């Protein structure tokens, strides 16, 4: 495969992965309306692990278990489990696009903390993007009578955990992607198992099918994005993550009749602009 064809394939996989993530989030919001967050998280993780089995077999138990820096791996797993639990809790009370806006702010947090935690040098353009992104987050937090306070709190905590997962992941570049995803699913499944007994609902056949589909779609999204980042330059792939927002708006409107508030739309535009500035700066480094 030539470099140009690899880039085209990477773009296609990244765009497809973002659509699958948006579909996964829509299914999750639908399911947590009638099932506990723990139950959805547990079954999603178990189904995704089944899909991952062939890749685990190819990787082998030695590379799966003998991971680098176990303490940092455990911290990343904790961040990942808390992040996905908070996401599903947040979408119970907030529109899908609103929650997605908070999550898209995670690269802003990463850029702000990277100089302190990773010793990375940050220029004026990056600091400008960071300040712009934080302004967007503050606008998104503007009070509104229609917003769930618990959902907003969960969304802010979850996006911070997502940033923590990204930061720890930067220090674990030597760990195979399959191993990272495996332990991430183990952590999420474990948290789901601990919280599932509170509010467990015996599902219909259709709901069981949707719960299983949730794990398959999530695993497909992870695999698409992982492969895309191997085929194409990360700085060029990063802007495609913002296609999540229009998909979230469209699917949220179709499935739930959600119409984004004007302050949230403005906040989303500011956060996306800040994220694109960060991606542009990284592409120049």
Automatic annotation (TrEMBL):
InterPro entries: EamA_dom, EmrE-like. GO terms for cellular component: membrane. It holds the Pfam family EamA. Coiled coil: none annotated. The keyword Transmembrane applies. Keywords: Membrane, Transmembrane, Transmembrane helix. Residues 9-141, 150-278 form the EamA domain. The chain crosses the membrane at residues 38-59, 71-90, 102-119, 124-142, 148-168, 180-200, 206-225, 237-256, 262-280. This is Putative membrane protein.
